[in-house]
Amino acid sequence: MRPSKRQPDEMRAVSFERNVSRHAEGSCLVKFGDTHVLCTASLEERVPAWLRNGGKGWVTAEYGMLPRSTHDRMRREASSGKQGGRTLEIQRLIGRSLRAVVDLPALGEVQITVDCDVLQADGGTRTAAISGGWVALHDCLRWMEARSMISVDKVLKDHVAAVSCGIHEGAPVLDLDYPEDSAAGTDANFVMTGKGGIVEIQGTAEHEPFSEAEFGQLLGLARKGISRIVSLQQLAVA
Length: 238
Description:
It comes from Mesorhizobium liriopis. It is an enzyme of class 2 (transferase). Homohexameric ring arranged as a trimer of dimers. Residues 10-140, 160-225 form the Exoribonuclease phosphorolytic domain. This protein is of the alpha+beta class. It has helices at 77-80, 85-99, 104-107, 125-146, 152-155, 178-181, 212-237, and strands at residues 14-18, 26-32, 35-44, 58-65, 111-120, 160-168, 171-174, 186-193, 198-205. The model has no long low-confidence stretch (mean pLDDT 96).
């Protein structure tokens, strides 16, 4: 039995609340159980210097955890003068995941930055950020479309979502919360599109190596979970 009493293929309650930021072009408060992430999408009518006059836009992301998003207060990274390696790795993952479903030439020479701020952490913050980030990005693109800047159907090629899976006490399970994540023998994050394409897989054996058969089980669980998340994204933006 899982600590949360969930079935092996059962996700936590997932929700997407849109338009939670008054100023951002797109915003979403995403909840995966007790993991809550605020995602905002901001439009800038410029691109990085290395993309100037290249005829295409850019989508990037930033990620951070608030000091009391965890049990003990964390020091703000700004106070140390630099971002940690984990933060950089996660925000690059979010950016790659979102760009995988955006037609950058159709976007035009603008940049959209998706900021993902963890309000409360209970495992799976990066997967929640990717899934909620897509909703914020979608709404930013709708904002642009309403001003005749783009056509969303040409720019946004598909949904993208992410979920964690792992082997906990010898059993493959879907959508790990913190008690499972901290004790899992294998921990993996899967990023996929709505059509089932694989964007990225991160998998680590914390103790014993996992087998190809176990990986197949984790992939099957991930596909089920991401299908559920995409369905909820579709409902949220309908």
